[in-house]
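Researcher: I'd like a candidate sequence for this fold, 652 residues long. If you have to choose between options at a position, lean toward the conservative one.
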């Protein structure tokens, strides 16, 4: 960790100067022959003591007044004042000095973590260029209303989500996704706040208010992540609450009972030397027991882990989710947008010749029926129709009805047209043979007569194929290498298509042709199965697009939204948000969580182990104040250094 005094705050610089001044005075006083002048020696040693420790004494006194006595300031105050009273002036000053060095080091480490996260998440724009009456005015982004036109110049951040109306450019989305590859945009493309315009001048029509834009949502998510505590953090908080009073009473007992037992059991004469020896042990015991290393390093580890993950486009909503993610053994995934690209393309049109309709007319009817839908399958049918040189006339379409998990029914030129899966055909009583082609099949039927919505004739079907993501197979393989016991795919797609995709990428179990409520039921069953076979300590992750799968994301042990760039529903419903659509990020998120948790437990075991060992040595009189300083400040510095490693978990 590089040290630069210019990065220190005013408070940190002040503490550094006090530490240096006290250290210089301590060395000089230690070398001076002052043993013959006890009063002068006490007064002189009091100067560096108060120079470096006055704020600790003040905090301890305020704690006593506020009836919040047992904290590290109280421990340090009692231990050092006691040492000064016993005549151990150099040790009393040294304890306070090294404690403050540890506090300074901790403050610098936390500041570095915050600056790193701020730099990684430096996506909040300071202004927006609002276009009004042909003039461009620089305004606060909060003042820009939905539907306004803003101008984004090369090098500027996109302040608010919107749609490009003029210009073309490349956007740098690395602050959001962790990927350096630029994204090209042109008129009609959606862009999100937090991106940086790299080249051309853009004019954008805003689609959201500033507070609802992607950058604001992400910043709010990261800022609030610290409020959700992991079990280990909660344990440390509870531990500190009973641990500190316990060691205070233990030190008091040591100071009183030690001499008493020696006098009564071993018939030693009561003397100031006997009492001062045991009081010294008690004070050493107090210094050793200070819980700073644990109380500071554990939250810092989680804080660093969340920041490190955000640097690679993985947003974890809290340290509790970090812990849950580290224990993932079952990964359940949606197909479209997670395993496959979601770029549906029409690959075949099979018309039913007996109904005197050709493939062009059937495709036109399907396109008109789907023209009001935003579903990827509907978009692919519209693209295929428009590729033939025509655009759907939406005025010909009325009474559009979307049937959840089945398809759509609309009135086209006065006759009902149904486009959807076999379940929709079965619901309408349409007789048709299942298509054997691999892909998503949209069956098309039309009412026999105008205004008749009860009797349908089958027209044919359209085959739509989706491309598997190039990293999907490797991601599934890496999941299994990283301790994931079972991978499951849930999809509303046809069974043949689902099984084909699952086989190609290596998924263990497939459930196809599911409605949204079916996915919820299956995930509940899988959680029950996982608990029976692996125990409650293991967890199940569901990975979906964050919009259609919001109910499932909510009931899973941990919900991961995939490819959720700009999706409000994903940010709200999921516990972890992957800011691009790369399945490999699922494995990376699990690795990051496990590395962060490993650092947390390393600090817990090391700090508690060293402290209890030194407490025993202090109680039996082997440890002195210098070992106590190591057990307190030394252990804290080591734990903080280890915790800072969590900032770099993005490289896991």
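Model: Candidate sequence:
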């Amino acid at each position: 960790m590089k040290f630069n005094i210019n990065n220190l705050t005013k408070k940190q610089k002040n503490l550094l100067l006090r530490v240096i001044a006290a250290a210089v005075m301590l060395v000089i006083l230690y070398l001076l022959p002052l043993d013959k002048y006890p009063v002068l020696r006490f007064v002189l040693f009091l100067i560096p003591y108060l120079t470096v420790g006055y704020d600790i004494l003040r905090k301890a006194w305020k704690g006593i007044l506020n009836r919040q006595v047992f904290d590290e300031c109280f421990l340090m105050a009692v231990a050092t004042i006691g040492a000064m009273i016993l005549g151990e002036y150099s040790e009393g000053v040294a304890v306070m000095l090294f404690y403050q060095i540890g506090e300074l080091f901790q403050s610098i480490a936390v500041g570095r973590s915050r600056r790193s996260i701020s730099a990684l998440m430096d996506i909040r724009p300071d202004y927006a260029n609002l276009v009004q009456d042909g003039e461009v005015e620089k305004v606060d982004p909060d003042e820009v209303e939905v539907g306004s036109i803003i101008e984004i110049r090369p090098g500027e951040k996109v302040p608010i989500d919107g749609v490009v109306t003029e210009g073309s450019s490349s956007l740098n989305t690395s602050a959001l996704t962790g990927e350096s590859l630029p994204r090209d945009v042109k008129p009609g493309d959606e862009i999100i706040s937090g991106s940086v315009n790299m080249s051309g001048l853009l004019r954008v029509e805003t689609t959201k208010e500033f507070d609802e834009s992607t950058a604001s949502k992400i910043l709010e998510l990261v800022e609030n992540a610290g409020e959700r505590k992991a079990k280990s953090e909660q344990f440390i908080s509870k531990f500190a609450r009973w641990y500190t009073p316990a060691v205070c009473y233990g030190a008091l007992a040591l100071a009183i009972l030690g001499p008493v037992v020696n006098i009564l059991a071993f018939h030693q004469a009561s003397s100031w030397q006997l009492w001062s020896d045991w009081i010294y042990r008690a004070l050493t015991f107090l210094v050793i027991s200070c819980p700073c290393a644990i109380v500071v390093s554990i939250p810092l580890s989680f804080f660093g882990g969340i920041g490190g993950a955000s640097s690679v486009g993985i947003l974890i909503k809290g340290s509790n989710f970090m812990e849950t993610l580290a224990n993932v053994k079952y990964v359940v995934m949606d197909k479209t947008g997670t395993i496959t690209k979601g770029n549906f393309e029409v690959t075949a049109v099979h018309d039913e010749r007996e109904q005197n309709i050709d493939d062009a007319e059937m495709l036109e009817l399907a396109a008109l029926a789907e023209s009001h839908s935003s579903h990827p399958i509907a978009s692919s049918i519209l693209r295929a129709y428009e590729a033939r040189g025509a655009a759907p006339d939406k005025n010909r379409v009325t009474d559009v009805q979307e049937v959840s998990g089945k398809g759509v029914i609309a009135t086209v030129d006065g006759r009902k047209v149904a486009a959807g899966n076999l379940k929709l055909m079965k619901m309408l009583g349409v007789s048709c043979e299942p298509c054997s082609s691999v892909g998503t099949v949209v069956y098309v039927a039309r009412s026999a007569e105008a205004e008749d919505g009860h009797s349908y004739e089958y027209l044919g079907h359209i085959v739509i194929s989706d491309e598997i993501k190039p990293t999907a197979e490797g991601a599934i393989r890496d999941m299994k290498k990283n301790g994931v016991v079972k991978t499951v795919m849930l999809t509303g797609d046809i069974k043949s298509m689902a099984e084909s995709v699952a086989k190609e990428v290596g998924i263990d179990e497939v459930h196809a042709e599911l409605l949204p409520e079916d996915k919820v039921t299956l995930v509940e069953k899988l959680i029950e199965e996982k608990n029976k076979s692996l125990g409650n300590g293991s967890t199940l992750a569901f990975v979906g697009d964050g919009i259609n799968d919001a109910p499932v994301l909510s009931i899973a042990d941990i919900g991961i939204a995939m490819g959720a760039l700009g999706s409000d529903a994903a940010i709200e419903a999921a516990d972890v948000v992957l800011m691009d659509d790369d399945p490999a990020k699922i494995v990376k998120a699990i690795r990051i969580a496990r590395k962060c948790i490993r650092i947390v437990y390393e600090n817990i075991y090391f700090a508690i182990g060293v402290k209890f060992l030194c407490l025993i040595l202090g109680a039996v009189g082997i440890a002195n104040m210098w070992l106590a300083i190591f057990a307190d400040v030394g252990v804290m510095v080591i734990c903080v250094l280890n915790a800072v490693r969590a900032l770099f978990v993005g490289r896991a």
